């Protein structure tokens, strides 16, 4: 049997549904049992991801292509740790407030690690653990929050289209156009998925019905033969 190809992004990006515990936000907060979320499912929510060469980000051609194709003209770095950030404990609590932005949020981790939590369509929290080499794009309008993990250190590249706007809109801000656009995209993706499922059912449903009818015909033939064998006298 051939081996299943592993997504190399999963070495630096993992996601799972969170529990409802009020313990330290820097803990993993897995459900029991653990419920992981695929990167493909994140993509359905509009959360895009890459694995890049964080040791050579200055000359990385793949990063260059992503920036050019998506128009990320602005770039800077943000380093978060107790030694570099005044009022560290208060700051990371403020980062953990649920909010949205009217533009994409792009983060590329060049050192350390941290958690980006996002709401799914049903308002459940998905925790996205980003480590060195991981890059994600959170779509405009998605409710999210950020916290470091227990290592208390992260250095991230921040990218933006044009001049950066870091304004957070704490929940609730459902009236913003960015939120409505995202919800519309989610609905459209769900409709496309349903259409695909219906096409699948129509295509394979006919095959299944033919198989069932064929089985019934064979069954009837076998019953008929058995009945004939019983009726015909043995001594003719």
Question: Any overview of this molecule?
Answer:
With 236 residues, the protein is an alpha+beta fold. Helices cover 33% and strands 25% of the residues. It contains four helices and ten strands. The chain has helices at 39-44, 61-70, 88-95, 177-231; strands at 13-17, 48-51, 74-80, 99-100, 105-119, 125-131, 134-138, 144-148, 154-160, 169-170. The strands form two sheets. Strands 1, 2, 3, 5, 6, 7, 8 and 9 form an eight-stranded antiparallel beta sheet that branches. The longest helix is centred in the C-terminal third of the chain and has 55 residues, at 177-231. It is globular and about 80 Å long. The termini are far apart. Mean pLDDT is 87; it is low at 226-236.
Give a brief rundown of this model:
By secondary structure, the chain is an alpha+beta fold.
Counting DSSP H or I runs of 4 or more residues, the number of helices is 4
Q: State the order of secondary-structure elements, H for helix, E for strand.
A: EHEHEHEEEEEEEH
State the major sheet.
8 strands, antiparallel
Give the termini separation: 58 Å
Helix content: 25-40%
Mean pLDDT over the full residue set: 87
Strand content: 25-35%
Q: What form results from the Cα inertia axes?
A: globular
Q: How many extended strands?
A: 10
**Rg (CA only):** 27 Å
Kindly name the structural category. Answer: alpha+beta
Low-pLDDT regions:
226-236
């Amino acid at each position: 049997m051939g081996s299943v190809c592993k997504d190399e992004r999963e070495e630096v990006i993992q996601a799972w549904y969170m529990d409802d515990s009020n313990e330290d936000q820097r803990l993993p907060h897995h459900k029991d049992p653990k419920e992981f979320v695929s990167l493909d499912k994140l993509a359905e929510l509009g959360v895009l991801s890459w694995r890049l060469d964080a040791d050579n980000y200055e000359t990385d051609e793949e990063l260059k292509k992503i920036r050019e194709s998506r128009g990320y003209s602005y770039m800077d770095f943000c380093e978060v740790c107790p030694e570099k950030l005044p009022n560290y404990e208060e700051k990371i609590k403020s980062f953990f407030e649920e909010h949205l932005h009217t533009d994409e949020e792009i983060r590329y981790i060049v050192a350390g690690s941290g958690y980006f939590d996002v709401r799914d369509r049903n308002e459940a929290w998905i925790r996205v653990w980003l480590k060195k080499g991981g890059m994600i794009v959170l779509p405009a309008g998605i409710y999210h929050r950020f916290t470091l993990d227990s290592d208390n250190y992260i250095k991230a590249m921040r990218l933006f289209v044009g001049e950066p706007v870091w304004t957070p809109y704490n929940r609730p801000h459902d009236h913003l156009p960015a939120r409505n656009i995202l919800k519309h995209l989610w609905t459209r993706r769900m409709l496309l998925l349903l259409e695909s499922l219906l096409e699948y059912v129509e295509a394979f449903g006919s095959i299944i019905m033919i198989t069932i009818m064929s089985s019934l015909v064979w069954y009837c033939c076998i019953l008929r033969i058995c009945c004939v064998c019983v009726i015909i006298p043995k001594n003719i």
